[in-house]
Design goal:
516 residues; BirA Bifunctional Protein, domain 2; Herpes Virus-1; Rossmann fold; 3 domains; five-stranded mixed β-sheet; 41% helix
Length: 516
């Protein structure tokens, strides 16, 4: 079996080879942590965005969308706390001259203890076979107990250092845990420093009227500053939500893991405004609903887990992440935060405008509390690809790479393939495609053997291939070939549309989500 690292490399090169993701400005050598989406990538990305947007604005009568500007009056970022506190703790290794996030180095160390525990369990499971009781083993095996104690102690110390903002202690943890630089292998570390992640630029043409502004590091502040506009013009009643999809920018210290951590990325955020005191109920509700949204895609329920936060951001009174099992371990894809009334209060203070809601039932005004669901489009994209990418060994020694993408998200829904490039087959295939193209993105291909054409479509995750042959001209039937099973079936041309329609409909995913 390929190592995790090899599997990830294979996925990254697949993304490039099949037009999903390219390094930005690659002809000039690329730009670290910035990527472009190619012809298939943009379709998949748009489908992910649609899946999210419609799940918010169609399924919920009380959620509306907006599209705020990337540039905002800079006081916004004073009020939000980003100018003073949007920092990451960074540390340099003097020998390799490489820069790391101190918290990430320690988190990796925590993961190492978990790996060690898992390895011991795997060894024991092999040894004891069916009689193996994992829980009992973990609570009694001396070595596992020692690892677990070390991990818990480290975890506690780390959480306290983060909460106290104690940079010296973070460095001391790195030294005490004997964490080495992966490049130089040494422990020659500098002190830990804070680094602000916002990109700054200027607005205005002449020297005396320019103003420093920031590229937004998160999209939600555009929602908060528009709270009253939307509430009043939309006559919204609490509880209600505002959804937005848009670009965000962070000058990330450690740019790694492909599109997992980018400097320019896209977020899908929804801020749900509710009555003070009801926020924990709504927090629970959204935590639940968001996980259902992920699971409905069918990538495998075991690939998701919650991770409740130890360190709460300055604005939050509860927070959890939804993590997905990436090729490099379980990682955050989405955050769900109970942000209290912090943002609206702060914008109220800094702008001098009262950002309050008059509750007709209570007959009083208050600043609503907010539950936020915040997911990165790019991380979602990566999780969908990682969960769909398979290298399969076929009978007869052949291999195929297939993306078992959820059909609703697949960039191309259907490929129409004339078996031969003559005898009127291309014309018939074109005619079929001309009917389908109004509703589905289709591909038409006549070059190469049919087997090679199937492989190319498997590699980009096209759920259906329609092959047109001589029999089609006689009885108006075609062969449908299914991506996942490779099974083939003869159906009437008139049945193609409804077959595709049923399989790629987001409606079925939404129904599933609303059921359980
Ligand atoms: P991390 O701890 O990984 O830096 P975060 O907790 O700072 O992430 P949030 O501020 O909660 O992230 O942002 C919400 C979502 O935005 C994340 O769950 C993630 O999907 C996405 N996101 C954040 N930073 C990046 C980035 N640099 N590149 C791609 N997506 C990102």
């Amino acid at each position: 079996m390929a190592s995790q690292e090899d599997a990830f490399k294979a996925l990254v090169s697949h993304c490039k080879e099949y037009g999903f993701v390219f390094p930005s400005s690659e002809i000039y050598g690329g730009l670290a942590a910035v990527y472009d989406y190619g012809q298939n990538g943009v379709e998949l990305k748009n489908n992910i965005k649609k899946y999210w947007w419609d799940s918010m604005t169609l399924l919920h009568q009380n959620i509306v969308g907006i599209d705020a500007a990337i540039f905002m009056e800079p006081t916004t970022w004073k009020a939000s706390g980003h100018v003073d506190a949007f920092n990451d703790p960074l540390i340099d290794n003097r020998d390799s001259k490489k820069r790391y996030r101190a918290d990430v180095l320690i988190e990796d160390q925590l993961a190492k203890y978990d790996d060690k525990i898992n390895k011991e369990c795997e060894k024991a499971a092999k040894k004891f076979g069916d009689a193996f009781d994992k829980e009992q083993f973990i609570s009694t095996n001396a070595r596992v107990k020692e690892y677990a104690e070390k991990r818990d102690a480290l975890h506690e110390r780390f959480a306290k250092a983060l909460n106290d903002n104690n940079l010296d202690e973070l460095k001391q943890i790195i030294l005490d845990e004997e964490i080495v630089c992966p490049i130089s292998g040494t422990r020659n570390w500098t002190d830990v420093k804070q680094f602000n992640l916002m990109f700054k630029t200027q607005i205005g043409a002449s020297a005396d009227n320019t103003m420093d502004i920031y590229l937004r590091p998160e999209t939600c502040q555009g929602i908060f500053t528009n709270f009253l506009n939307v509430q009043k013009t939309g006559r919204m009643k609490i509880p209600f939500g505002i959804a937005q999809i848009g670009k965000a920018f962070r000058n990330e210290i450690v740019a790694r893991q492909f599109i997992f951590r980018m400097r320019e990325f896209e977020q899908m955020e929804m801020q749900f405004f509710c009555k003070p005191g009801t926020e924990m109920e709504w927090f629970k509700h959204w935590k639940n609903f968001r996980l259902k949204w992920h699971k409905a895609l069918g990538l495998g329920d075991q690939k998701y887990r919650y991770h409740d936060h130890d360190k709460l951001a300055h604005y939050a009174n509860a927070a959890t992440d939804i993590e997905f099992e990436m090729p490099f371990g379980f990682k955050e894809v989405e955050g769900i935060h109970s942000r209290t009334n912090w943002d609206l209060s702060r914008h109220g203070q800094f702008s001098g405008k009262k950002l309050e809601y008059f509750d007709p039932e209570e007959n009083k005004s208050y600043i609503p509390y907010v539950i936020e669901t915040s997911i990165g489009v790019d991380r979602m994209f990566l999780s969908v690809l990682a969960g769909s990418y398979k290298e399969e060994q076929l009978e007869g020694g052949d291999k195929r790479v297939v993306l078992n993408l959820p059909p609703a998200l697949a960039p191309i829904k259907c490929a129409v393939l004339p078996l031969l490039k003559k005898d009127g087959l291309p014309e018939k295939a074109q005619a079929i495609m001309n009917e389908l193209k109004f509703d589905f993105r289709c591909a038409y291909e006549e070059k190469d053997t049919i087997g090679k054409r199937y492989r190319r479509q498997d590699a980009i995750g096209t759920p259906f291939c329609i092959t047109v042959d001589h029999q089609t001209l006689e009885d108006n039937t075609v062969t449908v070939r299914y991506r996942d099973t490779m099974a083939q079936e003869r159906i009437s041309v008139d049945a193609i549309h409804s077959k595709i329609s049923e399989a790629v409909s987001m409606r079925n995913l939404y129904k599933k989500m609303m059921q359980d």
